[in-house]
Amino acid sequence: MTEATSVNVPSMISIRDAYKSFGTQSVLRGVSLEIAPGETVGIVGPSGVGKSVLLKLITGIMKPDSGDIIIDGRNITTASSEEERNDIRAQVGVLFQSAALLDSLTLYQNVAFPLRERLGLSTEEAHPQVVAMLESLSLSDVFELLPQQVPIGVRKRAGLARALITKPNVILFDEPNTGLDPLVGQEVYELIKSSHEQYKFAGVVISHEIPEVFQVVDRVAMLLGGRFVAIGSPDELMASTDAAVQQFIQGKTDGPIRIQ
Amino acid sequence: MSATSSNTPQEYTETTTYSVWAWMFDRISGLGKFFIEFFEGLGRSWVFFGRTVWASLTPPYRFYQLLLQFLNIGAQSTLVVALIGLFTGAVLAVQGDYTLSKFGANAYVGSMVALSLIRELGPVLTALMVIGRAGSAITAELGIMKITDQVDALRSMAVDPIRYLMAPRFLAGVICMPLLTAVFTAVGIAGGYGVAVGLLNLSSGTFLSQMDAAVEALDITSGFIKSLVFGVIFGWVSCYKGYTAGFGANGVNKATTSSVVTASVAVLVVDYFLTSILTRIFFQ
């Protein structure tokens, strides 16, 4: 288990010494992580440690106070224009915690949205791809419904379909099974696994649910106090002697992690 | 600023002196913070306005989104605007007849109703109605989109939320406001005519001829300019408040209330200055 991971291939995602504060509250204090193409890394940690902030830095929705976020060799933090940032974002798909489907659009329209808006395809050009994606994620029966008319599990599947439809090099999963019952939560993990096998994207899975998240990641990075306190394989993390890591894994209230 | 009964006189004085300074410091720093936040907010809202206007006027245009907003802001407001216009015109006729009869000038009810509606009440009341009905809905919709990550989702898909969400709403507001004002004014004049001629026994010819004699093209231009400016205020405030809504249901609640209050007050304040300026330009 190491503080920083060295990889021989060029990284798909490179987070270098990222700092982020909100007012006087310092959330990220020098976070660094390299993620190789096709690799999936879980970022775990207690609620409120800045996992979702890190995800927003990777998508360029937020800018770090200092440090760099590099996606496939292009630095999104120093991009000079929104167009350049959008070019870099085009490589990234995101499955948000609440799926974040546009609630004025049907599931079909939501899945077609990136093809229409990002790639500029016509309705006819987008249709075969959308239908194939809906079928592969078992959404063919509900594609005409609005997001608020279907359960959260279906919304998550539609969100995953939307994230996958442009075949991005990177997919970010923000708390993919939060708020789901164990069966649907496991279904979402199975979908992440199968889609990763099919599309070979580099993935970042933000979660506080361990050991469940270990089944879909190659490595795990634990965020605490604004830094990664442990980075390694799931087995290495499980075997860690770090008191904070063990407290978090075992879900104990006693230990160095103070519950907020 | 408090002292317990166990304080000695000296301790009491020191505590009180310290507390007074602390109290003053807190007030001054609070005032400073208020002004900094106020001017920061003002600056952000102007940047937002500039970006929205730019996105509204430059391609790619989103005609389907614009049509949807014409439906939401324009078509769905027409009935309520017409209804309010009808009764505003009617009550103007009743009040006008009562007031003007004191001077033996009942014949001028038509010109009074028409000028009041065209120059003042049409643009202002329409703006207040549309702000209350559609502005609050826009703010709430955008606020909910923000707190449910839909706005972030757009950004993550390389879609500019200003261009996709704000520009169609802003543009639809600017275009619909003068049209709704025209509906309000026309129906209002019809309401005034109905009451004056049907109930107050004023002759139809007198009502129409006095209205025709009093109303000039510049009166209509003045009302049109006002409604256009109110459309800008409506679109700007309702979109900005939704886009900057705070977290949770409470954040959306506050944003919606603030949107309606800010836009309504802005309309009334701007109306005074616009009336002064337009009167000076057109009628002096």
Q: Number of helix segments of chain B? A: 8
- Spans of chain A of at least 5 consecutive residues whose pLDDT stays below 50 are 1-7
- State the helicity of chain A in percent bands: 25-40%
The largest sheet of chain B, given as strand count, sense and whether it forms a barrel, is: none
Tell me the major beta sheet of chain A.
Answer: 6 strands, mixed
What does this entry look like structurally?
The complex is a heterodimer of chains A (260) and B (284). In chain A, strand 1 and strand 2 form a beta hairpin. In chain A, strands 6-7-8-3-9-10 form a six-stranded mixed beta sheet. A four-stranded antiparallel beta sheet of chain A has the order 2-1-4-5, with helices on one face. Chain A has helices spanning 51-59, 82-89, 107-117, 123-136, 152-164, 182-199, 234-238, 243-250, and strands at residues 13-22, 25-35, 40-44, 66-71, 74-75, 92-95, 170-174, 202-207, 219-224, 227-232. Chain A is globular. By secondary structure, chain A is an alpha/beta fold. By secondary structure, chain B is mainly α. In chain B, 87% of the residues lie in helices and 0% in strands. The longest helix of chain B is centred in the N-terminal third of the chain and has 49 residues, at 9-57. The chains are: A alpha/beta (260), B mainly alpha (284). Chains A and B meet through helix 2, strand 6 and helix 3 of A and helix 4 of B.
